[in-house]
């Protein structure tokens, strides 16, 4: 069953989290900004570890067993319910990611273009990545990580002369509430926590250790980018629809006079990896329900649903914003990584045949 290493998996999750951060729209979410945002990321680390602790404790003796497999061990009905729930959650994140990408492209990069072509092409490429298999996506992620880190170094070097720490003030100037709220919102939109519990059967290595490295890696990335943004564009970033894209447009290094184009290619690669990862797990969940032999049919159905829903939500942006705000409440995440594991442990496990005898 294992297909990739823990390191490869958490590299993919690192890229997924970075894509959400790079294409963030401040107006769509209430979270800490400025120095308060820097402080809130410490709470992100603490909250992430705490909410995952119960699931890790429950699965600690189930070597190589993920949450869905554990649910089927408890009862057939529990397994069916979990497979259905997580398929819907994974599909909803994949759709959200496609809409996020299409809206970003058609508002910040190509404002006069229709989002239809971007939605269709983006989804088709993501489906092809799922079809090629998890190993191929993992190898592609290694390349994307190298390019991402290289591009971030280029941004920092090109903006070094613009650095000014005048924007760094006390994170608690506006009180403790913005810091706590910022930490909570950052966790609430971290759907990658759900993937950790679902991908365990496909991984080789120490998942808990990999998870801790992932949390610290995300913490370092977000802290670094917020710091660079504060010290280069300051509060001007808050007025921009896509602050980090604005920073990328400012960057100039050697013969790269338009580094935002370079970053767009990299961010598109990362967005595809994220969509492919969630479509993969949605496909696997549905294979529990309809059989592995139908996996290609299931994948085509998921692609059709993703394209249709993405086009509708991109057109009716108010509906998309409402769904996005619901995600930020944390309800879907806490149901997936807290409520479901606790309910499963309360269900009596199925007795083995030798026990019945």
Automatic annotation (TrEMBL):
Keywords: Germination, Membrane, Transmembrane, Transmembrane helix, Transport. It holds the Pfam family Spore_permease. The keyword Transmembrane applies. One of its GO terms (cellular component) is membrane. It is found in: Membrane. The chain crosses the membrane at residues 36-59, 80-110, 116-134, 141-160, 180-200, 212-238, 264-286, 298-317, 323-347. It is a multi-pass membrane protein. One of its GO terms (biological process) is spore germination. The keyword Transmembrane helix applies. Belongs to the amino acid-polyamine-organocation (APC) superfamily. Spore germination protein (SGP) (TC 2.A.3.9) family. PANTHER family: SPORE GERMINATION PROTEIN A2. This is Spore germination protein. It comes from Harryflintia acetispora.
